[in-house]
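INTERNAL AUDIT FORM
Audit reference: QA-55
Scope: verify that the stored structure record matches its stored sequence.
Auditor: D.O.
Record contents follow.
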Amino acid sequence: MSEVSGSVNASTVAAKKKLSSQFFKKGVTVAILSGMCYGLYSAFLTLGMSSGIWADWYGVNTAALSAFVITYMLGALGSAINDTISAIWCMGIAAFKGKLGDFFRTLKTKPGRVMMFAAIIGGPVASTAYVVALQMAGSIVIPITALCPAIGAILARILFKQKLNARMIVGIAICFAASMMIGSTSFSADAPAGLALGILIAFIAAFGWGLEGCVAGYGTSMIDYEIGITIRQVTSGLSNLIILVPIFGILAGGGFGLSAGLVVDAITSGPAMIWFIVSGFFAVFAYSLWYKGNSMCGAALGMACNGAYSFWGPFFCWIVLGVVVGQDGWALAPIAWAAAIVMVIGILMISMNPLDLFRKKEA
């Protein structure tokens, strides 16, 4: 009888290990898909900001707008529209799944408020900086923003006294070395005028997302990832649209009239809004699949897989904007591609011991 019982227990353990392995592998796949969605969101966002009325603002009619408006206010507006549309997608998905009530209830809780705070850091601050940098310097800034896990690890050590071992320090050093490789391209003779400043602004985005990751880690550990991303996108979209864009309008000297006029012109530009709807859709899954992947394969490995957007971002910008649409300037120098791959290696070093991948496989 004991032999039969032992056989059943062994079979149960083997089945559990198999299910855990399948769940882990699915989590890795989900996290990788989040990085791919981030690359697609970046490409279609940039396409939207070069279509319709945006082509006039950045092109032949630039004389009608000040340099401040073109450089910063339009970047904030693009981020605001993308995140607002992404929030609408999130609300629709939550309603379809019967989670809309959970969304409103969670807003009143402490984890919900933490997510709102994280969204303000990652939305008006980091996302706007990212869009501005992308417009100024192109897809070369994407690997720079992928420094956020490295910055997040440093901030976690400073703010929350989390352990920072030798392996993580090596990974951080690799990431910053990769960013230096990318930055070196700004010294070439044919570099665009705004490249150096765009790279600098990209560091602001990386810092903001690194800080957001530290803060949001608490919130997402206590609430449904789909509710978390809905709170994140709604907060980011609204704070961008009704706070940041009007503030830029005041700073530009045009007041609320300028910001309201630009918003109306942007949302009524059909050729551009088509691509914003697509970019907003991919933004939903860029973030939500990251949360889901982290919960399935662990935050460390999930962060590493998602951080591969340092490669997927330039890749899809080159495919969508350079190859399909035929826009010039999206081809990257070989050193930039190499740096993107080095960045992924550095992120992997920060997030986990790469040898664990082989140990799990052997087990």
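Auditor finding: record pair retrieved intact. The two ends are 29 Å apart (CA to CA).
Action required: none
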